[in-house]
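Q: Predict the bound structure with zinc ion.
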Amino acid sequence: MPKPRVDTKNALIVKREEYVNALEAILAGGFCPFCEKHLFKHHRRPLIFKGRYWLVTENSWPYEGARLHFLFIARPHIEATEKISTVMWGELQSLYRKLVKKYQLSGATLVIRSGDTRFTGASVNHLHGHVVVGTARTKKTEPIRALIGFKR
Ligand SMILES: [Zn+2]
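A: Predicted complex:
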């Protein structure tokens, strides 16, 4: 049996039922939801940039409170950051700059989970980066929270 490409346990932690249901359908289908040939079976957000190594799109399931939430999805199926080649890093940097310019971002957070999802909290085991944009902090704002690992 092939290794599952999604980790529904991590999606359950953040308790987004719709997302869990989508992942369960993907798990039942037995495909990797971020491999390009499968991505648009379930992903309904527009493609913003298409590089040689990365696709940049909006996240279908933005983190709660995010004003904008983008994904950088590796075009080859890789699962760990250490598999990113130097040219692929270069393209990530250049597409990131384009994104910042296009959306005139004054501040954003880039998160890339890597490797074994039991350690990272990732729900899709295909390398992707999140770019999360909130609003400027005020006395009335609350933090945007994201699962980035586990502690005892
Ligand atoms: Zn994949």
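A: The mean pLDDT is 92.
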